[in-house]
Amino acid sequence: MDLSRRDFVKLCGASAAGVGLSQLALPPIVQALEKAAAGNPPVVWIMGQGCTGCSVSILNTVHPTIAEVLLKIISMKFHETIMAASGELALEAQDKAAEEFAGKFYLVVEGSIPTGADGMYAQIGTMKGKTRTMLSEVLHLGTKAAAVLAVGTDAAYGGIPAAKPNPTGAKSVMAVFKEHGIKTPVINVPGCPPNPDWMVGTIAHVLLYGVPQLDGEGRPLLFYGTLIHDNCPYRGYFEYGVFAKQFNDDGCRYKLGCKGPETYADCWKRKWNNGVNWCVQNAICIGCVQPDFWDKYTPIYQSLG
Ligand code: SF4
After folding, report:
1. What are the start-end ranges of the E strands in the chain?
2. 170 and 152, same structural domain?
3. pLDDT tens, 184-232?
4. CATH number, domain at 236?
5. pLDDT score at 63
6. 277 and 130 together in one domain
């Protein structure tokens, strides 16, 4: 591999600076990934309680394209939304991957895991008359995987399904692992949904250099290491007490409910929709990458202070 981790971090960090366009397309990263991924690391992607928004978000990755990710970088063995197989055939492919690549495959978990009613609130399928639940799959595959990526706030922290009164007993991957003594490393990539760069960038880091440096909430510092409020273009207004009263006013959006003062992510420079815009530009930050989202940050348009 010719690309040092230092250069990789620099490229990811610089990717959004100013231009707002991801530079993950830069040939050195794609080439290094292709080289490192010789044999294409197997990935099993399972989905529990969620809206499929995380999958839709990663399908929007532009640099590299999702076709490059799927065809050149990883080998997707199971993904309900994009795979052609269904029923027992699909589950057989998943079982085969888990056996054949035990200790080597990467498990991506999207959505939270309902633990109530023996996990029956989220069923993955039926195999030889036996129901498989999200809970049973996470426990089974989680012990066999090399590492787990908990993508989206639901998988990372419980998210909206775990909001009070949490009737299904929804939990995060880390919480389920802790309860069952599973030691497989978990990397949280929260967001509702996460930016495609955060997911592809984290996968790239894991493949090229191993588990990235994480913050206290299990998130890669590479993407979640800065406070939105400290980097917001409206921060000057905040300091001078100039607050917008409605969305087309000039001024800081704090009094409209902005959660930027408590939210760690690089949306302010990476932006969304291939660098076109971001939440604070058009509305407010809703704190969707934070562990306490949803309960702590609602009502959405209520000010923090
Ligand atoms: Fe920007 Fe929101 Fe902080 Fe105001 S409160 S400066 S809009 S992040």
Report:
1. 42-47, 75-79, 106-110, 113-114, 123-127, 130-133, 147-151, 170-171, 186-189
2. yes
3. 999 999 999 999 889 888 988 888 888 999 999 999 999 999 999 999 9
4. 4.10.480.10
5. 61
6. no
Residue 268, helix vs strand vs coil: helix
Answer yes or no: is the C-beta of 244 below 6 A from any ligand 1 atom: no
Whether 22 is in a domain gets the answer no
Distance 231 CA to ligand 1 centre (A): 9
Distance from residue 237's CA to the centre of ligand 1 (Å)? 8
Ligand 1 neighbour 259 (Cβ under 6 A): no
Q: Do residue 147 and residue 202 come from a single domain?
A: yes
Q: Which residues span the domain enclosing 252?
A: 226-282
- Summarize pLDDT for 68-125 with one digit per residue, the tens: 777 677 788 888 888 888 899 999 989 999 999 999 999 999 999 999 999 999 999 9
Q: What is the pLDDT of residue 19?
A: 42
Q: Which residues pair with 220 in a beta bridge?
A: 214
CB of 257 shorter than 6 A to ligand 1: no
CA of 158 to the centre of ligand 1 (A): 26
Does 174 share its domain with 265? no
Ligand 1 pocket member 101 (CB < 6 A): no
Cβ of 253 less than 6 Å from ligand 1: yes
Q: Is residue 87 part of a domain?
A: yes
Q: Is 121 helix (H, G, I), strand (E, B) or coil?
A: coil
Do 207 and 239 fall into the same domain? no
pTM tops 0.85: yes
Q: Angle 196-209/27-36 helices, nearest 10 degrees? A: 50
Measured at the alpha carbon of residue 50, what is the angle toward residues 175 and 74, in degrees to the nearest 5? 85
Shared domain check, 130 and 262: no
